[in-house]
Amino acid sequence: MPEIEHMNDVLNRLPAEFRPLLNLEHLTGWTLDRQREHNADLSTYEGGRAVFQAVLRSQVVEGDRKWSARWRARKVEKQWNKLVKASRDAGNAAEALRTVYADHVREVAALPAQRARKAEVKAGRRGKVNAFAAKSMHKTAAAMTSRPDGGEEDGSETAGQSPDRPAADRTVRGVNDLFDRKGA
Q: If you compute the radius of gyration of the chain from its CA atoms, what whole number of angstroms results?
């Protein structure tokens, strides 16, 4: 439970006006208000930019060339363009905040079910591996106890031994001996 205590500490340190924003409905309303403000600012900035652009581009001084007034006006227009872009970006960021937080809430709500499904799949895989290993062990044990030569138990041959190999070589001490491999 230390995670819950840590989360409570974090929540207690949040400014009071931001705590309700953790609720998706509150955040939706808040971001829509921010978008309205930024869109109103955007309209204001675009209007101001248009006025400045018209006035500054029409200020022709004696001796100017064809595009001189326009080039002088660019310095001021550049700042207006920054205001317009910042306002547009802020409105888009408010929209993005709302959608990303909604996705986050949905993802967090779905995590327990996803983790349960993964655990079931993992348990199923583990069960299949265990069943395969058990089957393999039974086959190995059966191979170790069966007589590969098919001889009879009349005492002429020892069970599981072939007549062409000495008895000392036929003793099975490990898995490698079953496959005629030399052990380490």
A: 41
- CA–CA separation, 7 vs 13, rounded Å? 10
Residue of 42, 20, 24 lying closest to 91 (CA atoms) = 42
- Looking at the chain, how many residues does it have? 184
d(CA 73, CA 57): 6
| pLDDT tens, N- to C-terminus, the chain (184 residues) | 566 666 566 656 666 677 777 788 888 898 999 999 999 999 999 999 999 888 888 877 888 788 888 888 899 999 999 999 999 999 999 999 999 999 999 999 999 999 999 999 888 888 888 888 888 888 888 887 775 554 444 444 444 455 555 555 556 666 766 676 665 5
This model's pTM is above 0.70 = no
Q: How far, in Å, CA of 80 to CA of 63, rounded?
A: 27
Q: Specify the amino acid at residue 16.
A: A
Helix (H) or strand (E) holding 78: helix 68-145
Burial of 94 (0-12, 13-18, 19+ CB in 10 A): buried
Distance between CA 53 and CA 76 in Å, rounded?
Answer: 8
